[in-house]
């Protein structure tokens, strides 16, 4: 299929995803994916995260609709799975808390009446994993976040420039988030 | 539009008829402006109108226009163009299709071009080595190369003079295509490659002599040696130079084909298929359909789709286990094909167990689910030969430890700031 490529799954800490509110989409193409630009300039469509599933709740009214909260060293991600994510929904229905989980999914955003942007994840898959995998992810994400922080400081590409312009990114703040995450591995 | 009208008028003037330019213009205007007809269609329609009005036979009119202006082969540059050529029949090929009467190569002082003469053109038979005047042949483009076609409207006239062909006599074997790296091959060209036969595939299709993978220092590519090429067989693990092979692309994949004009020579050296091996580190983020317990065609080993082989139709398949995995580094993704042996080791699941599981659940999907549960979300390092978008995995190892040094280094950098 020419022109088709798979979106890489970005590595973002929960805190940074929560701070993100800039979405973009190629309006001329109805099948164009939606991207979320984060304060360190990651352009996210797909995301990969590993953390601890600490809460789950079926918030559906007619059919099952599961909300899971997955925490990492910096905060937590909200994961929503309903009838269109049957494997992930089944996982949430059956698993016991707490558990280390690996989630691959797409980010989605919701703007509240008072203009706040809430971010959440629509999972493609959720698997139970071990602690080592969780630690590997924290290190992986710390490394990639730090690389993006450096890029924003140097304003080396379009995404870093745009992120700095929109969020007035305080890179010191994100450095301290990376540090906090790394220290949790000690 | 004014120009178009003028050019129509000029054409008629040559026939001795003065058509008022206003008449032409008003007709053109009606078609183009009011009825949104494309201007070249309008031009044709208006021309035909006046031909009819002045009772000029259409073919007379158009033939005059096409009166021979000779084109040199080197100047052929436009698909759909009509041309008149003086050329020599350099080579006649065995024709492959019942609707074709003759096919081969024509040459003149400037170059060589393929020609096809359609059966329904009903033209006299051409002889190799003779020169002809070809009138009204059509230029076509196929796979990025031009060729000329002789059809019903074409005519052929034998010449007494002999047309010289660029650079003397043309002997195909003397013209050897350029030696190229496998990674540099792109579709639609001829090439010579040096490489080692990395893999030979079982292939029982009668029109194929051998198929498999050929590798050099730069990459690996699929090759097909057609039975009609009448070339020697190659052995796995030996290195060869393959001269004059055709490179083409199919479904986005580049491959090479050996035919009648190709040649194979065994080499004494052992070509290293070095950097074709690549390593990728990442998290497994997906296992794609077609993974798990699958059935393969007993004839050609291709995976069956709904119990049918794309080549051999409905067959009784043989079970196999494999994974089509997607690995993801966070900035890129890599597809990886994991064979049965590695899949069994990685998932701790033998083929027999998988078959039993599927039978138990009446659903081969349970095997795929099991693989997903065991493998997705974990970090791996894979190595293997790269083929198109896949790495054909030779080894896959889960990451088993944290890089403490990296943590410390990063913390030091973060302290300083």
Describe the structure.
The complex is a heterodimer of chains A (186) and B (417). With 186 residues, chain A is an alpha+beta fold. Chain A has one domain (9-183): Nucleic acid-binding proteins (OB fold (Dihydrolipoamide Acetyltransferase, E2P), Beta Barrel), CATH 2.40.50. Chain A has 5 helices and 9 strands, in the order βαββββββαββααα. In chain A, strands 1, 5, 6, 7, 8 and 9 form a 6-stranded mixed β-sheet that branches. Chain A has a 3-stranded antiparallel β-sheet with strand order 2-3-4. In chain A, helix 3 crosses helix 4 (158-167) and helix 3 runs antiparallel to helix 5. Chain A starts with 8 loop residues before the first strand and ends with a helix. The relative contact order of chain A is 0.19. Chain B is α+β, with helices and mostly antiparallel strands and 417 residues long. In chain B, strand 4 (131-142) and strand 5 (145-150) form a beta hairpin. In chain B, helix 1 crosses helix 2 (21-34) and helix 2 packs across helix 3. Classes of the chains: A alpha+beta (186), B alpha+beta (417). The interface between A and B is large, with 41 and 30 residues.
Which helices and strands occur, and which strands form pairs?
The complex is a heterodimer of chains A (186) and B (417).
Chain A: E1 9-10, H1 14-18, E2 22-25, E3 34-37, E4 43-44, E5 46-58, E6 66-72, E7 75-81, H2 86-94, E8 99-111, E9 117-128, H3 131-154, H4 158-167, H5 171-183
Parallel strand pairs in A: 1-5
Antiparallel strand pairs in A: 2-3, 3-4, 5-6, 5-8, 6-7, 8-9
Helix pairs in contact in A: 3-4, 3-5
Chain B: H1 2-14, H2 21-34, H3 39-53, H4 58-66, E1 82-93, E2 100-108, E3 111-118, E4 131-142, E5 145-150, E6 155-158, E7 179-180, E8 189-200, E9 208-216, E10 219-226, E11 239-250, E12 253-258, E13 263-266, E14 277-287, E15 292-296, E16 308-309, E17 313-314, E18 318-328, E19 333-338, H5 340-347, H6 351-361, H7 365-375, E20 379-387, E21 390-398, H8 404-416
Parallel strand pairs in B: 3-5, 7-8, 10-12, 19-21
Antiparallel strand pairs in B: 1-2, 1-4, 2-3, 4-5, 4-6, 8-9, 8-11, 9-10, 11-12, 11-13, 14-18, 14-20, 15-18, 16-17, 18-19, 20-21
Helix pairs in contact in B: 1-2, 2-3
